[in-house]
Specification:
This is TLDc domain-containing protein. By secondary structure, the protein is α+β, with helices and mostly antiparallel strands. It has 20 helices and 15 strands. The chain is elongated and about 120 Å long. It starts with 12 loop residues before the first helix and ends in a 10-residue tail after the last helix.
Amino acid sequence: MGASSSSDQKASPEQREAESAAAAAGALPMLRKAFADLADPRTSAVPVASLQRCLSLRCDKPISSATRVPPDSFSGLLENVGASIVDVFFVAEKGGLSWVEFVKGYVKCCGRMAASMVVSNLLRVFALAANKAGHQVDLQFESDEADCKVGGHLVPTDVLMLLWMCWTMLWSSKVHKLPRGKAALFLPDISCLVLSAVVSCADNGSSLNLWNFDIFGSEVQLPAGKFVAWALATVPTLPDCYSQFIHEHLGNCSISQDELEPSKSSSGDITSVETSGPHLLTPGRAWAISLTARNALREEILTHCFFSNCDKIEENLLYRSSLHGKGLNRFWSNTEGYLGPLLMLVSGYSGDSHEANTRDKKWVIGVLLQQGLESRDHFYGSPGNLYAVDPIFHAYLPSGKEKNFIYSHLHPSARVYEPHPKPVGLGFGGTIGNERIFIDEDFARITLRHHAVDKTHQPGPLFPNQGYLATDAFILEVEVWGLGGTKAKEAQASVKKREQLFTEQRRKVDLKTFASWEDSPEKMMMDMMNDPNSVRREDR
């Protein structure tokens, strides 16, 4: 078959070049197996229809959403994704796709290339699939080459459908290997990502009312070039959803389409994650944060989007102020001993607590830490990120100028006089007494300062319309999620068990430590109460 000819010593230079590029991407063994599974034995070529079915995103069950019902054209867009990928990247001959064209097509869409080229490829597939579904997207491409410039513009609805398409691709790659079941695709609320693109790309984006912005009704134009720049800066791993989808589907193309439907337990729980409880870390927010990470943390965060057991997700919740109680002591008793990465989310609002309009304009910020917390009176920690999560998403990565990542200071156990006491609470970025984020010890107020005070993280606002002066806001909810996996949780349980054992030992009084009843303090006190005037020997 065509795949076997790849080892022929008489292979053409074109074939050797294509195979070398596929090997550099680590996909050559997978491509050989996929070609053997898809190729017609009579022609030694892959029929176009077979490849389109392999890369299809057909959803038989109704699509539900955490927000408004998706447009009718979105289902058609997903149905045309497979055909669009084949049309854009694979050049078929009369009898189908030969081995060389099959490998070259994969290299065009998933080979090693610049990040901007991958985003352009993603936009090309989206535009073609949307146009086939009857949803016109105003994007123009100078040529068929991957490095061509992208012209035209997008509107907020286009951005939402593009992000939902990427979410569906990731969802499909996660449940692709599971057996047949009764699953339905669930689309999370990702309005924070859409608003981030709107504010960054639109000419008047900073003047928009983000709390009442209508994504489906807005006709704000976002230039394609600015959108590509936003995607590279804010969600750099977004194209990975597309490349991972192609890799997973080609790697499992031998399974029939009837067997590729996700299982009831998996997708049912995926649907219930969004409605399992009013957590600050919703699947949409978790996905947005994961798009900024490239290491193992990304997979840990994605477990909050795609997981087969909601109880397992609850185990990763270390602290929630409405559940465990507010205050630094309650917070510390639940997070102490956890040495793995942490994700902390804070929901709050600024303004008068008695005004309803200020409470409606609540926001969510986040902090991603690479290590556990310690009680210190100075900054410490390894590089971590700050996030503006809702209503608009922004990620502020380490700048490399300073290393003031974490400040977590409790009241000292031994009260001593301090002429200049250090503030008690949690801080991130900035300097002591001038932190970019500071939470007081009661977890009632949070202070957010302008990015000018913080040289540790990249600049930018943490909530809409943040001014230069410090903002003293009210806290509604605090959540801390453990991202260290099972080992970190077991290590914390071991530390807590040991601390509990020490506490119980300190509470016990061993009477055997006293020499006798005559020498015990209890005997002395009873004698004094019975006859306080009696003469007693005084030890010198």
